[in-house]
Amino acid sequence: MSLNSTPSANRIHIGIFGRRNCGKSSLINALTGQALSIVSDTKGTTTDPVLKAMELLPIGPVVFIDTAGLDDEGELGQLRITKTYQMLNKTDIALLVIDSSVGMTVEDENILKKIQDKQIPYLIIHNKCDLPEKSTLSLAEHTEHTIEISAKTGFHIRELKEKISTLLPKDVNGTPIVSDLISPNDFVVLVVPIDSSAPKGRLILPQQQTIRDILDANAVSIVVKDTELKETLENLGKTPRLVITDSQAFKQVSEIVSKSVLLTSFSILFARYKGNLDTVTQGAFAIDQLKDGDTVLISEGCTHHRQCGDIGTVKLPNLLKKYTQKNLHFVFTSGEEFPSDLTKYHLIIHCGGCMLNEREMKYRLRCAKDMNVPITNYGIAIAKMNGILERSLEPFTHR
User: Fold this and answer.
1) Could you tell me how far CA 106 lies from the centroid of its own chain?
2) Percent helix, strand, coil in the chain (nearest 5)?
3) How far apart are CA 360 and CA 358, in angstroms?
4) Which candidate among 16, 74, 230, 246 keeps its CA 20 to 30 Å from the CA of 118?
5) What DSSP string runs through 229-243?
6) Exposure of 195 in the CB half-sphere (CA atoms within 13 A)
7) Phi first, then psi: what are they for 309, rounded to 5°?
8) Is 20:66 a contact under the CB 8 Å cutoff?
9) CA torsion sign, 142 to 144 to 146 to 151?
10) CA-to-CA distance for 262 and 264, rounded, in angstroms?
11) 63 forms bridges with which residues in the sheet?
């Protein structure tokens, strides 16, 4: 996979924070050498967080998060500030931009405390050091976390890039998707249902990434619809090492695939990839504890047009009601709409999180843990309710 095609969830997310007109957008332009962001002397040019996928040498593929000013005003301004703070949940590296002619303000100190509380690697960037009225950092203020620059003239931009590179997380996406479970020349069958909820003319991101990881392992990927799976396996001429299915076809696929063949789902693979397999496996057992009147949150990390057979809003609720035989209430969220208060929910069922970076997925898991709410994911929940959870986890014990 080329750097230009690296999925957003696999890129380092660099959040740019600061007051209005401190030079956040100018900084992004200076770092990338391109006019990606609108620059204006008018305060509040950036109103909502804007994510820009770029290549930042010498770091590689990144996503810049350009946020609204911390000193925005009015009722709408407060909503924008709230959005800015929410961006911390997906930020791998935080850059706090200070206007050197103004110095550190209360707004800057408040978000810096949040950055430190969340243990996000950060730099405090004193911009506009080319201005005659700039304040000079005292010796005590010069630390490993600070640097003086001019986004306008390019002063210290190269040094800033070098500082950013030292903050790179060491363990982002350190676990392969599937390549460590297979060997060269193994056959891996991927079951991809094509129904009304499937995107037209393309595979979804987890399927694409899994195929690429199989190819990188010098194994053979065979992609088939669920309706052609039985005939494909009969005609294959070789027993596959592993079958990976879309969660919604788990039951029928498990009935077709021999017990001697390892079987799992895309969402289970991605739970391991994101580092949360143990947590979501444990959370699935809360399904058996649901009672009449309990509320279940079903959350997706991406936004899409929901079809009549949507897995999140239709198939999962129907399966839960049939399995538990309880009168349950359901709440649905997607994209960045993850509730800050989870206490009213008795169970959270999350998608595989392929569109979320590792930090944001872990943030959601931590929120659930802190509020004592069990959380699982689509594939684990479906496997549990179909009595095949133990089988779906076998690939990780046969390594």
Assistant:
1) 30
2) 40, 20, 40
3) 6
4) 74
5) HHHHHHHSSS--SEE
6) 16
7) -105, 30
8) no
9) positive
10) 7
11) 13, 53
- Residues forming a β-bridge with 98: 126
Q: What is the pLDDT of residues 9-41, one digit of tens each?
A: 778 899 999 999 999 989 988 988 766 554 445
Quote the CA–CA distance of 274 and 393 in Å, as a whole number. Answer: 16
Q: What pLDDT, in 10s, does the model give residues 145-190?
A: 999 999 999 999 999 998 998 887 665 446 789 999 999 999 999 9
What span, in angstroms and rounded, lies between the C-alpha atoms of 383 and 183?
Answer: 26
One-letter amino acid for residue 212 of the chain: R
First to last CA, the chain: 25
Write down the residue that tokens 């089988």 correspond to.
391
Alpha helix (H) residue ranges in the chain:
24-32, 74-86, 106-117, 157-166, 205-216, 229-235, 250-256, 266-273, 277-284, 316-324, 358-370, 378-385, 389-392
| Residue indicated by tokens 């332009």 | 29
